Structures are given as structure tokens and as C-alpha cells.
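can u do me a favor
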């Protein structure tokens, strides 16, 4: 048996002595008949079947520095004669454990990492004739599809995790040895990987919405993403311009995002929002293209509101004119027909998305009991009337008058108490 020894390091080596024996007699009760000329030899049971089937040879550090051959003999109950084991102590490599660090894996991209065996700290490949060459992989890495290749010069190992591996992999390992490894030692290379999520813009989603109906859609935004780091802490990064995007945290749809538009909200054709995850993966965009059925018309219904006015104070009244309309065509392009009978409606007072018209009455404008105006939409005939009834309230102001009286003479004074009031 050739056992490679680095310098005068300790040896602990198991010899499969039965490999070349004829054990028709059972090879029972394996024992050492002649002790080693250096070190110790001990029968052991490697397969835990109650029968010794190998010999452990041990040599202390610093012992037998000449490294000459070591011999000992063993026998069994039915052996015709003892057998001799000759150990050739040859100069060997000192192998050590190592690490491969892969700083970033973006989604499911293939990544590689390398390690030079003779460049590992603590390794010593100068004493052995093999010089850490003739590497072999003892245990392959455990990550699905991961492989280890050996360089042509037999001095470098390359770990590769393929793009077909769609798993959250932060660590992996494999073991190696060399033809001249000290006492046949097997060492471990640990692979550490820093995985990053790769968020991918979702393909535009096509949907249809009738008029100004409420709309809601649950979107599995992570379905096309490469969640190498688990896509933890999913969050909406930027809100849509019109509707709402909300992360669902409970129930069957947890981990998805619900996009919604409220009832009566105006017609929109496209909407976008972005989302992100915890590990600085950047943002990805969701686009929703919203179509509407054509060939429909709006049915507008008259609106009546009653608002109080205190004295001659300014008034602003927001009327949700489309809320009672049937907006099968979306009540698009709300337009004033003519002008109000009192007060004003400016070009900026019509909110097409909210479906509201804001009527204004200026401070100190003459008192009115009612104001009306009409509006229409692209898909409606005829227009609809809006009536604003105003309940006017008088504003009475305290009066303070000075009356002069001589001693206790009778006084009669007339006051115009309404002179400073707003009626």
C-alpha cells in the first residue's frame, strides 16, 4: 500500500486488506499477527456488521522521519498463513478546505467560480511528486445541475451553476482529493453565492371595462420574474396615475397585486405602475391596456342639489353629475351647454376622470335662490339639467349705539338694526 505523507505529519489511514484476499473461509476474527515496524495497526469494523473487515494504520506526527517502508502482518481464524502488509510512505500533498465566492447571481443566470488548489492558504504541494495534480472529485455539488470541472493542467477546479437551475441557492459544496493527497485525505470546497432577484417587465395586460363601472384585477406580477433571492418584501414602487395598486397580504392571492378603478371613474386606455423586492433588484413595470365596448350611448339624468349660503359669502359646489347617469359609452368629454343662470363654471372646473362639475359663486355676489346649467357628453343626447337650490341664511350683526341721557329724563330712540346685517 502506498500512503502519501506530507513532511512528517500524522497519518490515519484505513486499509481495505480484504480486497485481494480469498475469504471462502469467512476471514473471521481479523487480527494483527506482527506489529508494524512503525506506528500502530488496529482491526476495525467499517460496515458495522460486527466483523472486522479493515485495518486502521496510524503514525504519530514527527514519528518515523526516515519514511522508510513499514511492514506488519495479519491473519484470520481460517487463514493458511499470515499475510504481510507493506506500506510505502511517499512524499505527499497537503490539501486544505477552500472557498469559492460568487458575488452576484442575477436571477437564473449561469454563474461560475474557480479555485486553484495549490493557491489555497495552508496548502503545500511542493514536497510531493504529484504537486497537487491528478485531482478527482469525491462528492459532487448538491445544487440541481451544478457541476465541477478540472482544468487540463489538473490544478484548478471550476464550479458552475447553470441557468436551468431555478432555485434559491446561497451555498453549495463538493469534496476533492489528489493522487498524492496526504493519507488519502478528502477536503471540502464551500461555494457561497449572493443571489439577486431579476424583475422582468410584465407583458401588457389586455382588459375591457364597460363605461365607468368599477374595475378590479389581481395580477401575479412575480410569475415571470427570476426570484433567485426569494423576491421577499414585494412592494408597489410607484402608484398608477389613475387607479390603485395594492399588495395582497392574506388569502389565496397573497403575494399578488390588485389593481382597481373605482365606480364612476372616467375612461382611461392605459395604466402603468412599478413594483420592487427587498434586495435592490430595481423596479419592474406592469402595463394594463383597457379597452371599452363601442356602439353604446350615455343616458344622462338631471341633478338637483341644495346648498346653504351664509349672507353674501362665496360658494363652491362640486356636483358628481355622472353618478346617476348610465355611462355605457363612458360619459366622455363632459361639456357645459351654455352658461349657468347664476355663478360660473370655468374650463378647469370640469373633472373628466372624477365626473364632477364645480359651480362657483363669488363673494358679495347678489343673493340668488337657484342656479341652473346643462351639460352633455360625447355619447349622449340630449343634455341634462343641473339645478342648485340655495338656502340663503341672514347674517345678523350685534348693534352698539350710544344714547346720551340727562339725569333721569325719559329717552326714546329709533334704531335701524338691519343697517349692518346681511339679509
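np, heres the sequence
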Amino acid at each position: 500500500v502506498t500512503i502519501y505523507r506530507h513532511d512528517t505529519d500524522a497519518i490515519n489511514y484505513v486499509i481495505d486488506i480484504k480486497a485481494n484476499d480469498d475469504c471462502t473461509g469467512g476471514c473471521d476474527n481479523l487480527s494483527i499477527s506482527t506489529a508494524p515496524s512503525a506506528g500502530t495497526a488496529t482491526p476495525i469494523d467499517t460496515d458495522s456488521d460486527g466483523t472486522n473487515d479493515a485495518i486502521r494504520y496510524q503514525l504519530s506526527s514527527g514519528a518515523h522521519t526516515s519514511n522508510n517502508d513499514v511492514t506488519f502482518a495479519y491473519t484470520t481464524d481460517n487463514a493458511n498463513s499470515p499475510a504481510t502488509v507493506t506500506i510505502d510512505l511517499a512524499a505527499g500533498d497537503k490539501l486544505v478546505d477552500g472557498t469559492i465566492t460568487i458575488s452576484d447571481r442575477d436571477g437564473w443566470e449561469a454563474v461560475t467560480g474557480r479555485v486553484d488548489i495549490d493557491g489555497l492558504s495552508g496548502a503545500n504541494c511542493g514536497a510531493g511528486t504529484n504537486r497537487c495534480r491528478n485531482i478527482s472529485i469525491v462528492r459532487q455539488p448538491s445544487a440541481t445541475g451544478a457541476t465541477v470541472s478540472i482544468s487540463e493542467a489538473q490544478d484548478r477546479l471550476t464550479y458552475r451553476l447553470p441557468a436551468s437551475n431555478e432555485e434559491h441557492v446561497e451555498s453549495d459544496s463538493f469534496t476533492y482529493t489528489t493522487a498524492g493527497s496526504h493519507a488519502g485525505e478528502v477536503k471540502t470546497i464551500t461555494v457561497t453565492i449572493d443571489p439577486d432577484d431579476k424583475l422582468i417587465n410584465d407583458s401588457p395586460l389586455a382588459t375591457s371595462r364597460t363605461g365607468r363601472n368599477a374595475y378590479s384585477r389581481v395580477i401575479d406580477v412575480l410569475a415571470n420574474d427570476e426570484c433567485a433571492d426569494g423576491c421577499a418584501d414585494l412592494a408597489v414602487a410607484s402608484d398608477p396615475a389613475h387607479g390603485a395598486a395594492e399588495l395582497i397580504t392574506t388569502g389565496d392571492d397573497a403575494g399578488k397585486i390588485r389593481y382597481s378603478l373605482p365606480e364612476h371613474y372616467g375612461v382611461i386606455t392605459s395604466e402603468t405602475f412599478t413594483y420592487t423586492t427587498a434586495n435592490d433588484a430595481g423596479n419592474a413595470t406592469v402595463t394594463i391596456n383597457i379597452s371599452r365596448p363601442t356602439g353604446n350611448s350615455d343616458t344622462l339624468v338631471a341633478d338637483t342639489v341644495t346648498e346653504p349660503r351664509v349672507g353674501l359669502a362665496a360658494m363652491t359646489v362640486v356636483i358628481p353629475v355622472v353618478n346617476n347617469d348610465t355611462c355605457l359609452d363612458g360619459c366622455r368629454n363632459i361639456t357645459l351647454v351654455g352658461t349657468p343662470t347664476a355663478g360660473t363654471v370655468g374650463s378647469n372646473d370640469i373633472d373628466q376622470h372624477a365626473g364632477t362639475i364645480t359651480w362657483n359663486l363669488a363673494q358679495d355676489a347678489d343673493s340668488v335662490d337657484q342656479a341652473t346649467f346643462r351639460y352633455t357628453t360625447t355619447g349622449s343626447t340630449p343634455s341634462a339639467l343641473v339645478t342648485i337650490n340655495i338656502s340663503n341664511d341672514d347674517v345678523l350683526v350685534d348693534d352698539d349705539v350710544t344714547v346720551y341721557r340727562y339725569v333721569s329724563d325719559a329717552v326714546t330712540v329709533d334704531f335701524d338694526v338691519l343697517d349692518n346685517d346681511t339679509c
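DSSP finds no helices and 30 strands in the chain. hope that helps!!
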